[in-house]
3-isopropylmalate dehydrogenase
Amino acid sequence: MSKKILVLPGDGIGPEITAEAVKVLEVCRDQFGLDISWDEGLVGGAGFDATGEPLPPETLDKAKAADAILLGAVGGPKWDKLPDISKRPERGLLGLRKELKLFGNLRPAILYPQLADASSLKPEVVSGLDIMIVRELTGGIYFGQPRGIRELENGEREGFNTYVYSESEIRRIGKVAFEMARKRNKKVCSVDKANVLEVTMLWKEVMEEVAKDYPDVELSHMYVDNAAMQLVRAPKQFDVIVTGNMFGDILSDEAAMLTGSIGMLPSASLDENAKGMYEPCHGSAPDIAGLGVANPLATILSVAMLLRYSFGEGEVATKIEQAVSKVLDQGLRTADILSADTRKVGTQEMGAAVVEALKAL
Ligand code: NAD
Ligand code: IPM
Ligand code: MN
């Protein structure tokens, strides 16, 4: 039976980059014979503008019915001052993650050798880099209760959030990380702030318990401040990093830059059964939206992850990755990854080049 994908372009550069990713899907269907189809939906600011909700019920229904979701990005200055936080575009994205129970977020930071010069670090520090960040995505301080802004007796206001993880939440993301490490270099580094926060003391303890079932995998622990430093000092020491929602958000943007640009980092957000939502790690880039210069490769590489993790089409996924590599070999670069002796192209030209390279494989 045909597998259904829900495409949610979202805001800012979202529509520009997902349009290129859809062209890649077309090649997968027409040339590689994948039995896939897709439909579009509204989310984020686009959802709010059209319906008053960042996650319109119709979109949620379509997302539940789909076999996988491909999302561009949400948010932008237009909606930043909405007084009701539940209407903000980002809530659309968070709502999808929570409603679909997409707790396992995979963010692979892989350096394409052709981009060694685009990284802000020295080529020898990043060459051969291949890290998998496993970020918990439906818990932690992002979702903990109570939360809000309240008035104190002295008349000033106080903002508060709750950083909370249950043992079962920690265990299930731990298993994702250890399973992943088993297929890689068999090292898990769990990142916490257990020297200060009880919630991450428990995190550390549960990771130790999970590790007992994986004697072939080496577990280490690192405080998040040190991890942030080690990522730019010697990033190749890491194989799999497992961490909570907020630390994972921050560290994955940092890791993205090691690969040359945030425009290169795809992601998968998976539930227990590998149903997933796929999106670039970057945001809606309001500063370049509408200019046709955004890098579509993170979104195209997210299509590869979708095919690999949700549809079991690893071979086609690898072809997409090879096509991206070929285009980089040809010296084509969007502005964010431009370096000496390369040619600057826009979003559409980059997408078209990947499509051509893919067709030739
Ligand atoms: P951002 O990732 O949108 O942009 C940060 C910087 O990276 C900008 O200079 C931008 O131009 C650049 N950049 C990002 N993606 C790029 C690409 N594909 N090609 C070239 N350059 C790229 O982060 P921000 O500016 O902090 O956030 C902007 C908005 O996006 C906010 O509303 C934020 O909430 C939202 N956001 C959404 C997501 C998501 O939908 N998953 C993720 C992060 C931020
Ligand atoms: C991401 C984004 C989101 C997050 C925002 C937009 C809610 O930064 O996907 O990395 O913090 O998870
Ligand atoms: Mn982020």
